[in-house]
């Protein structure tokens, strides 16, 4: 008879109690903790169906020979839309499009919303195509900002003006306005003072003009020069001094910008190449090759070509039996010929060293009849003064701007 080993009752009880406690703990845990989340995976439809259309823009600069129909085709303007645009243009606004205009094609996705034809910084033509066709002229609002600039010559006028924040365009205009009385290379001295009031136009926060001088003042060797902008009914925009005289003379004293005199008018000069006494009946302005040379005054080209030792030469016949001569040129303005009319400041040629010249420079002569005068010292005739009927208006404007300068705290110089 096989015997069985007895399991102690105590062990059985302990095992039973452990099992009960484990069951209770598992039950409590299932109550206090949420079951694990089940991840749902779905398959979306074509993404292109849910994306929002994006705005985009294409730019085209109108070139010579362009036609709107070809431009529209290139920018994929629907043919039906193009027909509607041409049919709607009853006032022929689109006929004013010229080379240089900028066309902006605005899209929402593949749909054309509008076409803007930008004429300049302020004016444009807007063609709306989103719903019904419309074509309108747009003129942006312009805001004029008045600025002041003051300074003292430390080295050159250009650098001194730049140092006090005056823009390049205003500096060049300043030199041009006073260019009939002052050579800004030869005449300017350390300690000379300048002041200027100028206007700049802005539209939608962007600068749309390089600025225009309202009032300018330059003190050169203790002599004060004044220029007040005034819109004369007869002459248009002009600059006049405090006496109402036009600061613009009939001739520019120097026919090129920011050069320097390398040889003065001298009847007893030793010629640098011929090495003998030979009168120097003009002024030599040293400048870089191809520096533009300007007509000193309004006139007619009386000679253009080569003249022995002068090399390439231009002569201009002016009123009052006056002639100016420009020699040692590199090349001419190809549009000019004998008989061509030129305006003061118009580019007629470029600096060179043709003929008997030791280096690039302009030889400039000023003839009064058969007499050659020193261009630096000759008294230049003035243009017309302020129209008499507007004299009071001019004087009121001049007083206003002089008061503005007096109210402004001028900088102190050490």
Gross morphology is: elongated
Tell me the distance between the termini: 134 Å
Radius of gyration: 40 Å
Q: How helix-rich are the residues, as a percent range? A: 10-25%
Q: What is the CATH C level class of the largest domain, in words?
A: Alpha Beta
CATH fold label of the largest domain: Nuclear Transport Factor 2, Chain: A
List the helices and strands and how they pair.
Blueprint: H1 9-32, E1 55-61, H2 68-74, H3 79-88, E2 102-108, E3 111-118, E4 123-128, E5 134-139, E6 143-152, H4 157-163, H5 168-177, E7 193-203, E8 206-207, E9 212-220, E10 223-232, E11 236-240, E12 260-263, E13 283-286, E14 292-294, E15 299-307, E16 311-318, E17 322-332, E18 341-342, E19 347-351, E20 361-368, E21 371-373, H6 391-407
Antiparallel strand pairs: 1-2, 2-3, 3-4, 4-5, 6-7, 7-8, 7-9, 9-10, 10-11, 12-13, 13-20, 14-19, 15-16, 15-18, 16-17, 17-19, 17-20, 20-21
Question: How would you describe this structure to a colleague?
Answer:
By secondary structure, this protein is an alpha+beta fold. It has helices at 9-32, 68-74, 79-88, 157-163, 168-177, 391-407; strands at residues 55-61, 102-108, 111-118, 123-128, 134-139, 143-152, 193-203, 206-207, 212-220, 223-232, 236-240, 260-263, 283-286, 292-294, 299-307, 311-318, 322-332, 341-342, 347-351, 361-368, 371-373. It folds into three domains: 52-139, Nuclear Transport Factor 2, Chain: A (Roll); 142-249 and 383-414, Nuclear Transport Factor 2, Chain: A (Roll); 260-373, Glucose Permease (Domain IIA) (Distorted Sandwich), CATH 2.70.70. Helices cover 18% and strands 33% of the residues. A hairpin with a 2-residue loop joins strand 2 (102-108) and strand 3 (111-118). The termini are far apart.
